[in-house]
Description:
Elements: H1 4-22, H2 26-45, H3 66-83, H4 87-91, H5 101-110, H6 121-131, H7 134-140, H8 147-150
Helix pairs in contact: 1-2, 1-5, 1-6, 2-3
Amino acid sequence: MTTATTLAGLYRDAHNLMRNIDGLQPQDAFEELLKYLLFRQTSESRGQRVPLSRTLALDGGFRMGDSESAKSIRRLFAAYLRDFQGHAKDLWVDRKLRLSDAALLAIHDLFAGVEFSAVAFDVRSAALRMFLGPDLRRGLGIYLTPDEVVR
């Protein structure tokens, strides 16, 4: 069972991976994280899985088959946004994940053990609140509804 604390830690790790591998600024890394999470939730609900094919080569790089996994993720994300009738379609009009293959696959591996469809919305929401502590929220210009109001 995935807890809010575990999921918040994964969000933090993913955010750090994007910043370390691709040098993204916090806002850009957060946006890419949201895109990836949307991809995972959507692909699970549609029964589409992108298998993990990442095997590190001896030199620390990726093997040839890895680019196919990254292409599959990018293709599924673009197709979902093309077909989607909600606000995400307008939010990401370029319909692209702007991560390198290395960052995208590292994040895909990081979340491999999480089945988002089995994680309650309340747990995902709590994890996002934990991940987005007050300092990070302020830096990103994000203002969440206070817990008292939500209750």
